[in-house]
Amino acid sequence: MFPKRQPLAEDFERIEVTLDGQTKPVWRSGNGPGVIIMHEVPGITPRVTRFARIVRDRGFTVFLPEMFGEVDKPVSGGYAISSMLRCCISREFHVLAANESSPITDWLRKLCRQVHEELGGPGVGALGMCMTGNFALALMVEPSVQAPVLSQPSLPFPINKARSRGVHASPEELSLIKRRVKDEGAKVLGLRFTDDPICTRARFRTLHRELGEGFESVEIDSSSGNPWGIKRTAHSVLTEELVDDEDHPSKKALERVLDFFDERLKPP
After folding, report:
1. What CATH number should be reported for the domain holding residue 70?
2. Which residue of 96, 137, 193, 204 has the fewest CB atoms within a 10 Å radius of its CB?
3. How confident is the model over 102-161, as pLDDT tens digits?
4. What digits encode the pLDDT tens for the residues 72-113?
């Protein structure tokens, strides 16, 4: 059973984290290795909070940086659009950059390093979703990031073929990530629905080509007539589209994420 819905402040502590002169609110809860969860558009919604609690209850210390939107506000069309527009004009997000990561990833890398220094262990997990999905890839420049998960990574916005293939990381970052895959056995996990027009098949092909066996993908059938009745516009694998049914492919994707964190972050 999924955790019950309740305000984030009931079981998460809001802390102010200052790194290199920049202060951001971060919500924290749990015990065990650290996992940084980067919320999707429009913000830290009740479904994002539900996922964070699932990860925490698996035996991890969860950190939820508050990057945009209003905490606990449910998803709506107008809210999603207004939040997206704010991100598009923000200096911290480069939503059309195919070969460059967003500036906010510098701050997030430092957060990963700080969490690892505090909690120890093999490393930290980093999971991004939707507009923050590719951030988990860029964070691999930080050696402490040992379990990166890209859930429906949507940047750059696929307005043309080049951007549909892009992974929102610079050539230098991608080269370092590839070296980690080759030399350290680093792994990356990616999730998407097969007919998602925002997180494209071409983007996952790029990740497979660049990272080889270092990239594991979970692609859930959302084509017309799929056996689960998943709509073709399905997008948010771990939040809005997650079904609490052991046999449902979204629940199996969730279990793979939790297993991935166990494998990469908990000492044998």
Report:
1. 3.40.50.1820
2. 96
3. 999 999 999 999 999 999 999 999 999 999 999 999 999 999 999 999 999 999 999 999
4. 999 998 999 999 888 888 889 998 888 889 999 999 999 999
- Residue 3 placed within a domain: no
Strands (E), 152-208: 188-193
DSSP string covering 16-61: EEEETTEEEEEEEEESSSEEEEE--SS-S-HHHHHHHHHHHHTT-E
Which of 244, 196, 239, 202 has the alpha carbon at shortest distance from 220?
196
Number of domains in the chain: 1
Can you tell me which residue has the tokens 């994420």? 257
> Nearest-CA neighbor of 96 among 162, 173, 39, 42?
162
Return the H-helix or E-strand segment holding 12: none
Sign of CA dihedral 181, 55, 221, 46: negative
Angstrom distance (rounded) from CA 56 to CA 72: 18
Q: Is residue 237 part of a domain?
A: yes
Task: Please name which of 68, 77, 56, 185 lies closest in space to residue 127, comparing C-alpha atoms.
Answer: 56
> pTM for the complete prediction?
0.97
Structure tokens of 249?
A: 């492919």
User: What is the total residue count of the chain?
Assistant: 268
Cβ atoms 111, 26 nearer than 8 A? yes
Contact 36, 115 (CB under 8 A): yes
